[in-house]
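Appendix B. Chain record.
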Amino acid sequence: MFRIKKLDLFVAKQFLLLFFATFFICQFVLMMQFLWRYVDELIGKGLSMDVLAQFFWYMGLMLVPQAFPLAILLSSLIAFGNLGESSELTAIKSAGISLMQAMRSLIVMTLAIAGISFYFQDVIGPDANRSFGQLLLSMKQKSPELEIPEGIFYNGIPNSNIYVQKKDLQTGKLYGVMIYRQTGSYEDQAIILADSGMMQSTAEKKHLLLTLWSGEWFENMRSQDMAGSAEVPYRRETFGTKRLVLDFDGDFSLADVRDISSNAKTKSLKRIYHDLDSIREFNDSVGRQFYHEAQYYTFRRPQLEKKDSLKVLEEAAAGKVDLDTLYVHLSTDVQRDVMKRAAQDAQQAYTDVTMKSDYSEYLNREERNHKIEAMGKITLALSCIIFFFIGAPLGAIIRKGGLGVPVIISVIVFIVYYIFDNSGMRMARADVWTVWFGKWIPTMVLAPLAAFFTYKANNDSTVFNIDLYKDVMRRMLGLRTKRNITRKEVIISTPLYAQDVAALQAVNVEVAQYAEEHKLYLLPNPIKVFFTEGNDNAIEHIDEELEAVIEDLGNTRDKIVLSELNHYPVIATRAHTNPFKRKWLNVLTALVLPLGIFFYLRIWRYRLRLYKDLRDIRQTSDRLIARIQTLIGEQNGAETNDSL
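Structure tokens predicted for this chain:
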């Protein structure tokens, strides 16, 4: 039976205080990042405070589910980092309480937060997205003179398309203006070109006053009396200054919500799955219609009646008639007509297929967007749990509180999650990946990472031991540490110089014999490298004897001896024999030819290094023996003087 203990309350209190603080920080950061996308919709529009308050309110509601995972990650990292840094986590474990038992209250709260996240996305989020979209569309329509973009046509003004080559944001002037005005049919349209212009709203906010300079006006003069005529007269006007009054209601009013309601983001999970059935059924009906049209579509043939055309096509399909032979026997004019009609039919077929392809892609994209939104509600709620099982174990392992290391790790983890989530969503939307794979890929990447960190933290394993990773990198790159033998403050026993000299002389003899026997400067035998055991007993024995002498001479007070000891290289006793300790890995490496060549050359490099190390050992030992013999002579002379 689950009982609430004092430890559960203590850990929960630590977590909740941090969670609320980090949640508001994350919410503020996300809102500021989101605000930059729509800052142009707010500036200079003359919006009232209640409209701005609605804008930020709906924005905040939309971003709450996204702030939950980051807040959980950061707060759990700081909470357990503080417990580890103050040794409270050590005291908890010393009392026989495992990390999972210490986290159980937070696990319950994380599950509750994940449920709240799903509720926000399924119930509150759709209404917030719908209201935000409606509000944003209304804000765009309030002051179109500020909304007109550069380099593309703007159709936000009724019955007009406006193209502006360049805008001056300081003065509000427009340069390179092109206007298409259409009040009825094609014959009623007008084209206006001007070098520059300026657009302003009238005082009553019901019209736009457009002032144009140095331009031309082209307008069709279609009249009812000329309805049967194929030619359409027009008039051309050149002007220095021209003022136009365009109908536009500039007062703020909420736009029609019907187009926004079809967006998948404005629907709950239940409605998404309900609408998906209708979308699939409609897409299937469109696909069947396109299939039937393609199945019964036939090309026209010149100079033949319809019945004759079908008969010729049937005979050609049966192999009774050769269409190429039939074409050759036609006259030149008929052949030209045939080619012209064939090209027209091919272009018409291409245009038809392109149009149907674009429409089918639009329908499929609509279906994929609904699936993406449905799975996104689940994966975003699940990310709260995953981020907790990443943050809490990492805090217990790192044992660093505050806003330093936890913030860096949180940002890194969130960036990884965002990259996978955003890339997966784009790939799924473009139909490159399946929808379930694109939306679940961040979960599939981070869930094993969360399980790994939880396992390591629960078993007190060292994951972020820098020395361990340094040692692994040194082994991979073939690097070695240098000796650093310094004078000891307290020496318990003095070195046995005579025995050390004898040991060094024996080592020199073994080194000379080994170098003469093995010829380390030559290429190694591939059979010995990949298919035999890699223990080199001779080198291991030399290394053991040498290390024993170095340890004994490390107790000396002579600076020259200590300096010479640091010249001895650190010998890698196995690096020159086999690439790996396990025999099956060596055999597998040999079978993979490029990899085998790399490791074979690597072994030769280590043999050359060992050859140089043995030479350095002999030279250093000779100098050290000479120095020790000098010290022995000085000691004997001192003892003789004392006896006299």
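Further analysis of this model is presented in Appendix C.
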